[in-house]
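Researcher: Batch entry, complex prediction.
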Amino acid sequence: MTTEPYPTAGVQDKDARNSDTLARDKVGDDAEMQRILHRETHSSRAGVAGLAAALVIAVCVYALLESAVRAIGQPPWLIDPQTAAERLIALPQGISLLLLGSIGGVVTMVGLFFFLNAVLPGRRARHILHDARTAVVVDDEVMASALARRARIAANVGQEQVMVVVSRNLVVVNVRPTSGIPVQPEAVQAAVQEELDNMGLSPDLNIRVNVAASGVIGA
Amino acid sequence: MNGTPRTLNRILIGTLGVILIAIGLLLLMLATIPAVASWWQGWSGGAWARTQELLAQTRFPGRSESWLWIVVAVVLALIIGAMVAWVAQQGKGRANDLVVDTDDGDAEGTVVIGGGVAEQALKAALADRQDLAGVSVATYDVKGRPGLRIRIEPRQGVEPQVLAAEISRLIEALDAVIGKRTPVLVHIASGARAKLTRAERVR
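Model: Structure tokens for the complex:
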């Protein structure tokens, strides 16, 4: 790297108190780091929470308006609570069955969306990179582009001829060879494997290399 | 790394989901099964009759309206307030200070190192790098202790482990300067800027 970081001289001449503080602070770091890493690799559901809150607020504001209007004895805005209750009791009369059924279907779907969001683990497309000092998480896309670069060099093809898809436990490397120049899948596999080993990620990943049957002309 | 209440999020979202599923399934069954329709009309009719009785008992003296409507309005306002408070909890936890040291030393007073020190130092150290499309550093409160969150967006093809090791060295230097190990999270991210800029072909 070409940049000069801020004074690294401090590493050498730290005094006794300094190193003592560093050692003391290390206690409890591992559990703390694990917690941070878990939080970073799983969704916080903040967006869905905002959506849910907005939905509840909208319903409550309308109900608040109607009940406040009712409390002070004014005419209702859209529907009087009394009429609304009577219509609800009369269901399924007063509305076409098809419409009622489809409203029910939509509401169930929305409910399922919220429920599954709450229950599923909510993993993000990220992997943990092991480092002695810091907690490092890497987006799968960053890994994919680094692996693609390595695979491209190993296969000796152009940038457009390699596509790498990284999922939680699997790396799929798709290579389209240049027409007339065969690609050795083993070589690509070995190169990608070496790069992956260098990264030292968890959870572990398997590699699958697909070499396309048809080549690219003029690449 | 921020203080989003994740368990609360899951509980509240799950509860809302279950309620909506129940309502939706009830509507579906009302539309399709006649037996459910007759049960519903009997059950809800009874419930509404009891409610009306209750409303009649709780009238304002001399007026036709029940004060229960005011209770309902207050409860709804409380729910709205709770929802706003819940949303306000999301993503909180930014901190200002990296070190607050009150003990030892002969002089009176405290030593405070602002989070800006680490943020500016790291940003400056990473600013000129050609293989990064963006850097942002923020200080967060991690269970009462300050922690740093570094988000870097490398260009396409940059090896994350090399980047992580270099950041790690910078952090160790920072530890020595500040005299305290802060928990650090490095997020090597892919963003729009990293995607749109071309990959470095020659390195």
